[in-house]
Please model this.
Amino acid sequence: MKTWNRLRNALPKWWQRKQKKNPQTPDPEQNGNPGNLNIARESLRALLDDQRVPDEVRLSLAGDYRQVREMLDKLEHEHIHISAFGRVSVGKSATLNALLGQPLFTTSPLHGETSESAMSMWQEQSSGSIFLIDTPGINEVEGEARERLAHEVAERSDLVIFIVDGDITHSELEALKLLTAQNRPLLLVLNKADRYSRDERAKLLQNLQRRVTGMVNPENIIPIAADPAEQLVIQVDSEGIERESQRQPAPYIAPLKERLWDILEREGKTLAAINATLFAGNLSDQVGKRILTIKRELGSKVTRIYCVVKGIAVALNPIPVADLATAALVDISLVVHLSRLYGLPLSKREAGQLIKTIMAQMILLMGTVWAIHLVSSALKLGTGGISTLATGSAQGAVAYFSTRIVGEAAEQYLAQGKSWGEGGPKLAVRDILDGLDRNSILAQAKADIASRLKASRN
Model:
């Protein structure tokens, strides 16, 4: 956990400071700094080796843990991942093929040809550590799964090439905002630039720059023609006869290639460390949420058991004073049990103080309910047992209800690290009461109590 704290408290703050200076470009002096890479590696190992994560959480996040292992392997081999991202048919595959210098990624005039991500090594230099990733289009019809996959690939990439083929659309702009909000370093590439005249291209680039201000730096908006349209060539022979033919121009990719290598040579290792840091942080948050969810699920089961126990004890006990004593003992045991579940053990005395705080707010907010509780208790004694079953059942249901509130309030207090938060206990208890359907809970209480009594007789 110390490693993870170092990660959260050091690297993200360092990166945020850099972002204020230049939101797109990390500090070149930090490139290749082994300290940042080591912190990123340690954080990923800490996530994999954390024995406090319950098996249920590991199982539910199996895919993410697999990604952690893959990212750790990526850092160990100092690999850089660059993904192409954009709408269907803007030329993502063609752009990557142009960078590679060979058609390794599938291209097609049909929409949605790329149905899943694909990867290929970029051997522009001898390092062999740069990988290009093709992704499905983000606007494929009935392609929510593909769009989700594309987002996941982009999240795990060190650099994103966001490709458009004209003025940016609403869906593209929303996707771009999502990526920049996740601190994805990216280039905005205008593909098929050969389709526009020089003036049209200049106006289009100017408009793109205006619309993505604050998200993409101007030097990272680049026009290319990954797969230029065929050109009509007219040749006149010696006899003056004209012959027409089609010529396929070479891809115009140099500006993108130069910008990529400029970034990678100066910042490649830093980008990899930042990406690993962000991924580790996101997964750590997911693990924490899943653990809390599982604790809440177990806490609800524990609370219901104690609700039934208290409801039966109160319903069957003919002595009103004993009812109150029994209720206190059950509630204290419940709170102690929940505190151990949340890893914040309380003594019986501390549990009792917590219950007093909760009860005080309940009495203020539910005075009439507690009046019914006391009246039912008096009726049980005054009738000589004639109405014990009827009034006992009602009182048991009220006791069940009160323990439900004690359990939920105690869980909220423990889930926040033994804190009521800014609103204090009154607001916490009121929110719990407002969120409960009293009639349905009382009906459930009577059913649970009756079921348990019937089972005990059998």
